[in-house]
What we know:
By secondary structure, this protein is an alpha/beta fold. The protein has two domains: about 1-70, 2,3-Dihydroxybiphenyl 1,2-Dioxygenase, domain 1 (Roll), CATH 3.10.180; about 70-158, Roll (2,3-Dihydroxybiphenyl 1,2-Dioxygenase, domain 1), CATH 3.10.180.10. The protein has five helices and eight strands, in the order βαββββαβββααα. It starts with 5 loop residues before the first strand and ends with a helix.
Amino acid sequence: MNKNRICIWYDKDAEAAARFYAQTFPNSAVGTITRAPGDYPSGSQGDVLVVEFTVAGIPCIGLNGGPTFKHTEAFSFQIATDDQEETDRYWNAIVGNGGQESDCGWCKDRWGISWQITPRSLTDALAAGGGEAKRAFAAMMAMKKIDVAKVEAARRGD
Length: 158
């Protein structure tokens, strides 16, 4: 067991979410699944209570805690991508599996978890500072899924 893990509260679908993440992202896996030893406010004995999983190397716990707490963009996973193909693959997997698009490279999966699918070319452009960063930032602000070619063109001033 890792000393520190991210605990994500789910209504009741922690196992389904963990399995989706493991199928979608490299270096991801589903680990131990713990079932409730007795009835609890939002479940019954034998229901999946806790799922240990890894998302892109980050250890997590999914807790099926019921509908009390909802997800917000205050928490998100940020996945750095190397090119448009990888950006498209992750974005389309999340949005195409009942998720929804948002702005500036953000989307939500069907369980309400926010994801930032961020091409390294965007991060590099913003880190460059000056006019390059300003132009890349302005281009990003008009996007939902990040378009690498448009970011690179904006960075060059095209």
